[in-house]
Amino acid sequence: MGKKRIAAARTLTRRRFLKVGGAGLAGAALLGSGTLAACGGESGGGGSGELVFFTNPDTTGTMARLVERFNERGGEVRVVLREGNADTGQRFDQLRTQFQSGASEIDVILGDVIWTAQLAANGWISDLSDRFSESMPSDFLPGSVEAITYDGKAYGMPWFTDTGLLYYRTDLLEERGFSEPPESWDELKEMAERVTQDADVDFGFVFQGANYEGGVCNGLEFIWGHGGDALDPDDPTRVVVDSPEAVAGLAAERGMISDGIAPQSVATYTEDESAGSFLNGSAVFLRNWPYVYSLVGEEGESALETGQVGISELPSGEGGPGYGTVGDQPLYINASSEHQEAAWEFIRFLAESEQQKFQAIEGSFLPTLSTLYEDEEIRDSVPVVPLAQDALQNTRPRPVSPYYSDMSLEMAEQFNECLNGQVSPEEAAGNLQNAMESIIEQGENA
Ligand code: GLC
Fold first, then answer.
1. Closest ligand 1 atom to the C-alpha of 271?
2. What is the pLDDT of residue 400?
3. Domain 22-162+326-396: CATH superfamily, name plus number
4. Ligand 1 centre from 214 Cα, in Å?
5. How confident is the model at residue 233, as a pLDDT?
């Protein structure tokens, strides 16, 4: 396994292979067909004594361990872990199909910040406002509380947070006299050009440009970093993407490819391929989420040692910190689950300090409990936590809308076509303006 392509690391690492064993592999194969398969050889689910926990692939094995810990407490219900598709859009579709057909075999959902509005607006997830004690919201990072809030109510439990970061090769930059990471995208280009001239490295910069949700995050980061936005933050029914600022952002993203800083193949890259390319030493810079830091220095997954890798906030157009996309992963309860109490007990357990600390130390997940950012053990053993602290001050949410999934498909497509040179940045922004306006109009009139 260790000899496999590094790009596959997030999907099935050696560590994970050893943990899940053959039964998990059978589960993984089933997932490929879009079935909500139980992992670890479990079958069925949602039965009277079972609480089904639907998650993204448990690549670090930490979720399975936490489920085990919870089950060892011997409560009335046993939690069963079900891993969904790695792609957040496809995972959402898996869920939506279930909800629309009225099936309720999933009880607890590990979500994505972009799902909250849509799941809540459709009445598919439980309003937990009355369950939260008054002090609870202030225990969590403000952005993470926002991520579970829709229409003034709390629809989930913050669990871990995420944001876009810039990874860079400290060794290659320092050898050429660059002691700090770039602050503007132009500076990144200059540094990348300088390093690729004489170092044994193929690419200046790799990121996620494929036609999917990660591509949306990357495109929006370029737009935000140039002063643009997709929707008006003060009036989310107003589309503002056809602006000179947004066009400049998309032009800068496309320019990474057309100026030879990034390979054309980034237009097909998701998190895995881009991380793999950086970790095997092929790129000077990488845009990715914090989890990649836990792979640096891991045998069979990374040719780089931690001393060779730095992390900073993303650059911006003008210089100074750019915005990273908020990627909170909250826990929701299916509104029609028969196990509301047990589900609440389970998500409260997961969000406790002890469990969040375990997720941070074992999986490089960023906690949502504010106090854990001061925890010495976490700061020492998970350097991405203190390093990401600054970046967490500078984040932006994707459009908060009950129609987000439709908007996302349009953004993913236009951003990707722009990277492929099929549309110009101006055309992409214009097309998006029209498409997003009609999505809102149709939604409001439905
Ligand atoms: C990360 C983020 C999530 C985002 C996804 C895109 O998992 O946490 O919010 O939607 O990447 O690929």
1. 12
2. 87
3. Periplasmic binding protein-like II (3.40.190.10)
4. 6
5. 87
